[in-house]
Task: structure prediction
Amino acid sequence: MPTSSARAAQVREWTYHLLILAIGIAVFAAAVVEADSNGGVGADFGTAMLIGAPLIVVIARFPMVLDRGTVGIEVGFESCVLMFLLCTMGSAEAVIVWSAGTLLTQALTGKRAAARVFNVGVGIVGGGLATVAYDAVNGGTIIESPRGLLAVAVAAATYFIADYVLSAVAVTISTGAPLRSTLVQTGTVLAIACFVPLDSLGYLAAVVARATPSWTLILFGIPLVTLLIATRAVTRGRENARRLTVLFEAAGRAQSLADRQAVTDALRRDAAELLQMKDVQMRTSAPAESEIGVEVQLGEETVWLVARAVHRARATVTGDQQALRTLAAVASDAIARIELIDEMLHLARHDPLTDLPNRAILLDRVTHALERARHQRTQTALLFLDLDGFKPVNDRFGHGAGDLVLVDIAGRLRECVRESDTVARLGGDEFAVLIEDVDPRDVPAMCHRILAAVEEGAVVGGQVVRLGVSVGVAYARGSDTAASLLRNADLAMYEAKAGGKGRCVEYKPTMGRARVERLELIDDLRGAVEAEQIEVVYQPVLEVATGRIVGAEALARWHRGGVPVPPDVFISIAEETGLIIALGEAVLRRVAADAAAIRAIDDGHGDPLSLSVNISAAQLRSPGFIDTVRRAAEAAEGTHLVLEITERQGVDLTGEVLAVMRAIADMGVRFAIDDFGVGFSSISYLHDLPASVIKADAALSADVDHDDRARGLLRSVMEMGRTLGFLVVIEGIEREAQLAVVMQDAPYSLVQGYLLHRPMPLADLVALLSGAPVAQQLQR
Ligand code: C2E
Ligand code: MG
Ligand code: MG
Result:
């Protein structure tokens, strides 16, 4: 739909064109009346009409084009025919033939109706004025005189000026450009320079026609055709140069366009400028018969850029089509570049796995939220989330499964919050939620929704895995920055973990201390591992049937500033920070070195002792572990090396881990499943592992001396282990009564416990092995 201002411009344009046409008709009518009053047309009128009118049509096809906006002024040289007619017949008759030629010319062009109406009018008016000027100067003398020549020159100039000025006014009316700038432009002088000599050809032809037989006029075809071809070459050459400029500018500008709309707007504008056509369309339908068009790929969308197909003096239809194609390619490139940049920006700002905003974007949004909250005096809350129980999923089912769980959780989190809240992934299993303009009374409900959503667990590889989430909540205070708010929420989350996981805890300023202490502990542990300050103690393992010590379990010990740190504390920190790999290797090296002293003792039965070392699942996944174990096994030759993997951590049985375990088992190193009975116990799991020892967790033997159910449970675990061919070690024997039950129910097993021996330094173990091979308690 045209806008109202466009409609008003159209009305103005048509009014002007019709006015000029009306004057033209009046001029024509006056010529007819005049001819009639002169006694009708002369004998040559018919011939003049038959040859002159078509000649006007032909010459009019080769105008010189002077550009102005999307319209352009065409200066035709067909007026040389008018000059010929004026010199050879009555003025009125000349105007009639001229008018007929003009009418025919416009009837045969493919121009817009408005342009044709105007051109008919302007042609006849110009012709009329030229005739008046000619008559005025010539005054009825013969043409073969200076006066006759002058009359033709004045008539030609009059025609040119009339045509040029009336066209310039038309351009001004349709484009709104000031008349002055339309009139004064490059090319005008060249046009006059071409125009006057060409028109004088008409005069020359008339002189020749009067002196020689009419057929000699054919000779004028040669200079005429040469001149018309030259004119066309100039017009087309200038048009091509102009088009190149438009294309260069469009291509240059396309580099800096920032969005699709800008590209589309520029494309439409450039196409109009390139073709010098006002009505270039962008639409979804292909061009019709009378149209040209190109398909433009604007990202995913395809549109058609369509214009009228019209042969013009300035360019051919093929040339127009080619120009549109080039412009379309520029636009498609620009869109492709914009989309690529958009994609890169998206990738830089989002987590590729879950497509959630990343830490950088979160911090950015928090910064803006804090500013807004300060102005609008609203509250901002930030939730820091860390999944509980995610690591075992990764360890046990592999990272592919872990990724699926994270994507699933991300989707659930988004459903728990408002549309306006930001859910971001900070990395690993950490997420954050930014809640703007929040009423703190609503936050507990939101936290509960989040806890419940995550606690639904996830189905991985057909198994349901339990998950939870610990949430720290921090409210922005006046002085907070994005970083400090995030740190506070993190500290609160840490408290939620420490307080038993699966809960929401609100930040309090006292929370920072505990975190700092933990960071110091991590630093110290790292130092101790690097300085090989982790010690190893050994707890003997005994055979129930004989009371003999058959092996020992190596247990790591760390004294921090002289104070022992409980193994459960430093081992779990080492697990969380990845230090466990270095720590585990150090323990393995220590045990391999200690093996020499143990091996030297002959227990009198010739059986080598077993040395058990605890290893973490992370070690199994670390590169080079097989070689580490091989070196330790070689150094510990003469003892049996056993690697205990705690069942609590779960082990990824699907991947390379199993292959690593098999390779290690193949070199004669055995595996024990530690803490059996309290972790991910399943028979199929036992079946898959290349393990030969089960260590029943202390929890299984804790109550066997006073609880029949506990006793039954231990017995069934023993039976199962035995049936599957495992050697079973019962841990945590602290009391005589417990031992008595074990001796009765599981005489073929091994035992380990404070009642028999506490963990001890190597020297004590050596002394023990050398002196007292049979435990008093186990003697029947
Ligand atoms: P674990 O592998 O199950 O080791 C047995 C734990 O039970 C040891 O605790 C041992 O001191 C304790 N224990 C032995 N007899 C009794 C008893 O009669 N009653 C009770 N209540 N406890 C008994 P510890 O030394 O504190 O080690 C705790 C855990 O730390 C170990 O459990 C093991 O999982 C881990 N750990 C220790 N050293 C290492 C190591 O070098 N590498 C790895 N990855 N883990 C280690
Ligand atoms: Mg153990
Ligand atoms: Mg254990």
Summary: Residues 693 and 727 are 5 Å apart (CA to CA).
